[in-house]
Structure formats: structure tokens, C-alpha cells
């Protein structure tokens, strides 16, 4: 199957509301223990900062950013995720504006942003390069772009660790889909993402490969692997 953005969006649009409820209020295990603190640190001070949450999903990160004083616009194409985020804003207003749109075809969002964050999104988009360009072009000069992805060198870390007691990989240099519970991710090399980022006129600020606190790890579910190896890569860059 040749994946398109529309096909991937349809998969995400079918995510059950009960699954989204389980990720409240601060995301799943990996987001709570590995991603959130790093994302917030890389974004820096948020009070009064205008932030685009690019591919905001069900909106948990948008709500965290707004609670820290950011002026947030969240963009999400998948119907079920967008509806969940909008419903949360209607019942617990934080001043977040949610927009249903493909990142590759953004509408007018009201001028440039001080920061753009894309949390576990780019690796799920077939036309990821166009989406990355849109994120960068949404920034004011000097603005920061922060994104997170599954670490291209250590994808499917927990299941291979459970099976072998170590990490194993057979293919790295080609692009291919990785089947997930609800919709696929796509493997791409680390250099693919970073080279495209610089091609779009960004200056790399920092890479982060967070490790798990051993107290939060469990041998039974493979999370002990996250103590030894990084399952996620976070990138902070500045638009020139």
C-alpha cells in the first residue's frame, strides 16, 4: 500500500474516545515519563508566548501549554481527535483555538508564532517534509521549532527488548511503514530529518534523548529498556 496523508488521517480518525480518555490529563506513560518534561524545557518560558501545537491530537499538550500561560493554536486533521480536543475546550475553556486541517495545507492562523511544537507527529505523516516546512514557515524569525519522534535508531525498543533482552535492528537506511495499534508510523533516518530542517533555514539548538528514571521502569513490559537506550529523539531548532 502506498500511504497518503488522507489514508493516514482516516486511520487516526477512528481512534476510540475511551482510548483518548485513558491519556488524560498528561498523555500516556511515555509522554508522562519521557517526553513532556523535555518538551517543556526546550520550549522555555511560555507566559504570553504564541504557540502552534502542530498535530495536537486530542489536545493534552495544548492544554498543558495553555495552563503555563501560552496563547495556543492547535491544529489536528483527524476527526475523532479534533472533536475530543474541541469538546474539552468547550467544557473547560483555556482560550485554545483548535483548527481542523492537514499540516501540509494550513489555513490562515493569524500571523507568525513564537514557537511551534510537533509532538510525535512528523513520523506519522507520509508527506512529512511538506508538514515540516509548514511548521517552520509558521514561525517568526528567531522563533523555536521543537519536535519529537520515535528515535530512528531505536524504534520498537520495548518489544525487541522483551523478546531478546537487548535491542536489535535489521534495516535502517530505507524508509518503510511501522504498523502500530491505530495507524502506522514511518521509519526514516536521523539524517533525513535533520538535513531537511537545515534546508528549510533552521539552526539546530539542541538534541535531547531522554532516559527513563529507573524507579519508573518495569521488566514485565519492556520499559526497563528506556533506562538504557533512548526511545525518543527531541529536536529544538531556531528559524533564521
From TrEMBL:
Please list the residue ranges annotated as the Methyltransferase type domain. 52-147
| Coiled-coil regions listed | none
A GO MF term: S-adenosylmethionine-dependent methyltransferase activity
Keyword Methyltransferase assigned to the entry: answer is yes
Arranged from A to Z, the UniProt key words for this protein are:
Methyltransferase, Transferase
Q: Would the keyword 4Fe-4S turn up in this protein's UniProt record? A: no
Which Pfam families has this protein been placed in? Methyltransf_11
One biological process term from GO is:
methylation
Q: Which Gene3D superfamilies match?
A: Vaccinia Virus protein VP39
Per its record, how is this protein called by name? Methyltransferase domain-containing protein
Amino acid at each position: 500500500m502506498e500511504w497518503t496523508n488522507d489514508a493516514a488521517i482516516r486511520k487516526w480518525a477512528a481512534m476510540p474516545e475511551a482510548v483518548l480518555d485513558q491519556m488524560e490529563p498528561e498523555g500516556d506513560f511515555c509522554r508522562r515519563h519521557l517526553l513532556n518534561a523535555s518538551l517543556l524545557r526546550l520550549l522555555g518560558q511560555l507566559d504570553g508566548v504564541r504557540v502552534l501545537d502542530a498535530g495536537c491530537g486530542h489536545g493534552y499538550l495544548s492544554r498543558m501549554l495553555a495552563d503555563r500561560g501560552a496563547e495556543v493554536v492547535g491544529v489536528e486533521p483527524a476527526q475523532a481527535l479534533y472533536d475530543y480536543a474541541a469538546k474539552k475546550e468547550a467544557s473547560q475553556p483555556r482560550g485554545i483555538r483548535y483548527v481542523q486541517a492537514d499540516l501540509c495545507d494550513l489555513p490562515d492562523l493569524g500571523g507568525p508564532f513564537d514557537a511551534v511544537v510537533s509532538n510525535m507527529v512528523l513520523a506519522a505523516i507520509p508527506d512529512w517534509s511538506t508538514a515540516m516546512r509548514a511548521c517552520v514557515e509558521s514561525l517568526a524569525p528567531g522563533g523555536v521549532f521543537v519536535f519529537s519522534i520515535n528515535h530512528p535508531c531505536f524504534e520498537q525498543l520495548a518489544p525487541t527488548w522483551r523478546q531478546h533482552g537487548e535491542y536489535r535492528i535489521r534495516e535502517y537506511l530505507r524508509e518503510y511503514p511501522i504498523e502500530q495499534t491505530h495507524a502506522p508510523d514511518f521509519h526514516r533516518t536521523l539524517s533525513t530529518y535533520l538535513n531537511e530542517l537545515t534546508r528549510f533555514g533552521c539552526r539546530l539548538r539542541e538534541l535531547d534523548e531522554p532516559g527513563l528514571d529507573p524507579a519508573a521502569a518495569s521488566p514485565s513490559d519492556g520499559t526497563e529498556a528506556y533506562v538504557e537506550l533512548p526511545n525518543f529523539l527531541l529536536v529544538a531548532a531556531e528559524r533564521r
